[in-house]
Amino acid sequence: MAGQQRQETGCLPCFNCCVTVPQDKIYAVEQFGSFQKVIGAGLNIVGFDLMGCCISFRSISKRVEQNDVFVETKTKDNVFVLVKVSVQQQVIPEQAESAIYKLANVSAQIDSYVSDVIRSAVPKMTLDEAFEEKDKISQGVNEALTKSMHEYGFQIIKALVTELKPSQDVMNSMNEINKQKRLRDAALMASEAEKIRVVKKAEADCEAARLQGEGIAKQREAIVDGLKRSVTSGTSETLSSDKVSELLLITQYFETMKDIGASGKSSTVFIPHQPNVGDISSQIRNGVMQGSPGQMRM
């Protein structure tokens, strides 16, 4: 047991005149049951003794020892938790007399102080805060023990909250909450990625349509220039905009007829047709003009 003092005997059978003290211990010399002095490591001659009646010894360890204290308490949000606190203490050599004679059970004394601090601090915190403030709880335990145990001849090296464990049901619930949160974050990220994909596709389609429109406009511009040159080549005649539009319209008409005829999936198409170019252009213009009012009435 940590901090426990023990009865010792001298190095001669039936006599306690001299004693060998190990390096990791402190001995207290008693004469007829009364404390006389503290002796350190090595061979010590302490006086005349007969059959251990005159002189006796008590020892205590100088090593750093650890007490594991388990405290069950309730948090602010009514969750019962089991708190494990590891306390590391050591005898103060200059106060060895107090360490040997003042406390009957060092571990029980430390357990009481730790339980008092834990049951005062943890109920003021929620479960999440308790996990976050473990260092703060450890500091509170350390300060309380250092102040209380010093008068008994012990110094506190460390007091660490090494485990804070709620019930299994609470742990399962916390894991489920964390799982659902991660699933929600994954769904949000997937939705955001889909949004970006759709937006980028729309931007690409818009840019493609713009470029296509510019291409068609330049194509028609080239066709118009070509028609002008072919019609007026070698003459001083100039074409009006109406004539140019009529030539462009007729050219597109025949290109459409060519595409329909070249398609393997085309079926019979009934189109009013006259061999006269002027009649063709008039029919196309009239069809366009008659179709436009019909669409407006709809």
UniProtKB/TrEMBL annotation:
PANTHER family: STOMATIN-LIKE PROTEIN 2, MITOCHONDRIAL (PTHR43327). SUPFAM superfamilies: Band 7/SPFH domain (SSF117892). SMART domains: PHB. InterPro entries: Band7/mec-2_domain, Band_7, Band_7/SPFH_dom_sf. Residues 16-178 form the Band domain. This is Band 7 domain-containing protein. The lineage of its organism: Eukaryota, Sar, Alveolata, Dinophyceae, Prorocentrales.
